[in-house]
TrEMBL record:
Major enzyme class: ligase
Protein's job: Cell wall formation.
InterPro entries documented for this protein: Mur-like_cat_sf (IPR036565), Mur_ligase_C (IPR004101), Mur_ligase_C_dom_sf (IPR036615), Mur_ligase_cen (IPR013221), Mur_ligase_N (IPR000713), MurCDEF_pg_biosynth (IPR050061), UDP-N-AcMur_Ala_ligase_MurC (IPR005758)
Binding site for ATP: G141, T142, H143, G144, K145, T146, T147
UniProt record, GO biological process: cell division; cell wall organization; peptidoglycan biosynthetic process; regulation of cell shape
Gene that produces this protein: murC
Protein name from the UniProt record: UDP-N-acetylmuramate--L-alanine ligase
Main subcellular location of this protein, as a coarse class: cytoplasm
Cellular component, GO annotation: cytoplasm
Keyword field: ATP-binding, Cell cycle, Cell division, Cell shape, Cell wall biogenesis/degradation, Cytoplasm, Ligase, Membrane, Nucleotide-binding, Peptidoglycan synthesis, Transmembrane, Transmembrane helix
Domain Mur ligase C-terminal as annotated: residue spans: 335-466
Pfam families the UniProt entry points to: Mur_ligase, Mur_ligase_C, Mur_ligase_M
HAMAP family associated with the record: MurC
């Protein structure tokens, strides 16, 4: 693959443009007046939004899509240019083709691009080029990337710094997973899942924590550490959370943060109060009290994320009052303990947690929010066979804060099923430690099972990075039916 990214006006074509990471890049490029097109197998609100700003979307990933670029340059301009975009000054109509790790060499569209001689870019190449193009803040870590980068982006936005933002989740404050600002600042989420983290050289880098989370790419934690160390070496300023043993012992951050004052971190907190409606804490900067930080987000891990944002704000010269005022109004990213509704006395929460550590943290937050006598019901869709197999024992121990666990089959995320593990096997392991466990392999029948199982007063959490959350609207609708029928 080529690593050179041409921002002079040559078209970009994204294979799989509807993905959360790919679409954010496409959005920023299109808003920067560059010709952008892409393909995706399923239309969505994300692809419709891209179309609304002039992006040409193909509904299939086929070799014929690339015929689009064989036409005369004027025809190419006519299709790719809209009131939001400008004609390309480049003589070549062949696009720069952008792929994620999910696109393999057998993809027909990818093969056609290779045969045409299109420059082939990995998604991370485009992100790395954008990071180099701005005064950039890149958030890395096994957990907390989306929330942390969203808090920082929101803080800069509220402080009037007008940042460009590229994150791995959707945020209501900018109505999606990306925004184009007019300032020099860029906030981006830096993903370690495929090793591409090493390409990024931000002005400020953050490492929230480090664990083995992608056994499809890494065999050992040491391999993960090595990738993060290369990322750290490319950061002009590195902010690290020393509550993580690996960060504390294997890295030398420029600036440190912690929830424990005894660590001697540059930024830490005391007087912590975790409540059902949010969290408050007194923030300290190198031994000096800055003031009280309030956030609507729940639990320990989100307080840690917010403290890292404080560190970033202070590096950029923001007053603590400005930082605290912004963070106090941040409502979170979608699918991060996202409230989806309350019907029949049942509260529905959607969360992206798919690693044992994330599940424990999310359920701890749920238990904190639960009223006396309220059941916490965890509905979990395992994500990837490799992750489920590698962390089977850890997953089994992650549901201690739940009163009832409902498990469905594994979401493959494109992985082949090697027959090593199944959702039913995971349910059996959880049941050894958790008395109330149900298994429903068929997502289509999950609505019926939950309608029979959930009861008024329940706090129902839908956990996973797959498509489990598609059940929520249907379930809410069916629970509403009796009320509608008698009205």
């Amino acid at each position: 693959m080529s690593n050179y990214v041409d921002f002079s006006g040559r078209p970009f074509h994204f294979i799989g443009i509807g993905g959360i990471g790919m679409s954010a890049l496409a959005y920023v490029l299109a808003k920067r007046q560059m010709p952008v097109s892409g393909s995706d197998l399923r239309p969505s609100h994300i692809t419709r939004k891209l179309e609304s700003i002039g992006t040409h979307i193909f509904g299939k990933q086929e070799a014929s899509n690339l015929e689009f670029f064989r036409s005369h340059e004027s025809a190419n301009r006519a299709l790719l240019t809209s009131p939001q975009t400008s004609p390309t000054p480049n003589n070549s109509t062949l696009p720069q083709v952008v792929c994620s790790t999910a696109i393999n060499a057998n993809n027909l569209e990818y093969k056609a691009a290779m045969e045409l001689g299109c420059p082939i870019l990995h998604r991370s190449d485009v992100l790395a080029a954008l990071i180099s193009d701005y005064h950039s803040i890149a958030v890395a870590g096994t957990h907390g990337k989306t929330t942390t980068s969203s808090i920082i982006g929101y803080m800069l936005l509220e402080a009037g710094l007008d940042p460009t933002i590229i994150v791995g989740g959707e945020v209501d404050a900018w109505q999606g997973n990306a925004r184009l600002g007019q300032s020099k600042y860029l906030v981006a989420e830096a993903d370690e899942s495929d090793g591409s983290l090493v390409k990024h050289t931000p002005d400020i880098g953050i490492i929230t924590n480090i664990e083995l989370d992608h056994p499809d790419h890494y065999e050992t934690l040491e391999e993960v550490v090595n990738i993060f160390q290369k990322f750290a070496a490319g950061c002009k300023t590195l902010i690290g959370c020393v509550d993580c043993d690996t960060v504390r012992h294997r890295f030398k951050p420029t600036i440190t943060y912690s929830l424990n004052p005894e660590t001697g971190a540059d930024y830490t907190v005391t007087n912590i109060d975790y409540r059902a409606d949010g969290t408050t804490a007194l923030v300290w900067e190198k031994g000096k009290a800055l003031g009280v930080l309030k956030l609507r987000l729940l639990s320990r891990h989100n307080l840690s994320n917010a403290v890292s944002a404080v560190a970033v704000g202070r590096i950029l010269g923001l007053e603590f009052g400005t930082i605290a005022k912004a963070i106090a109004t941040f409502e979170g990213a979608r699918r991060r303990f996202e409230f989806r509704g309350e019907v029949g006395g049942i509260t529905f929460i959607d969360d992206y947690a798919h690693h044992p550590s994330e599940i424990r943290a999310t359920l701890a937050a749920a238990r904190l929010q639960a009223r006396p006598g309220q059941r916490v019901v965890a509905i979990f869709q395992p994500h990837r066979y490799s992750r489920t197999f590698t962390f089977l024992a850890e997953f089994a121990q992650s549901f201690t804060h739940a009163d009832l666990v409902v498990v469905t089959d594994i979401y493959s995320a494109g992985e082949p099923n090697l027959g090593q593990v199944s959702g039913e096997q995971l349910a059996t392991e959880i049941a050894k430690l958790q008395p109330q466990v149900l298994y429903q392999p068929n997502l289509l029948l999950m609505t019926d099972l939950l309608r029979q199982t959930l009861r008024p007063g329940d706090l129902a959490l839908f956990l996973g990075a797959g498509n489990l959350n598609q059940v929520i609207p249907e379930l809410i609708a069916t629970l509403c039916e009796p009320a509608i029928a008698t009205s």
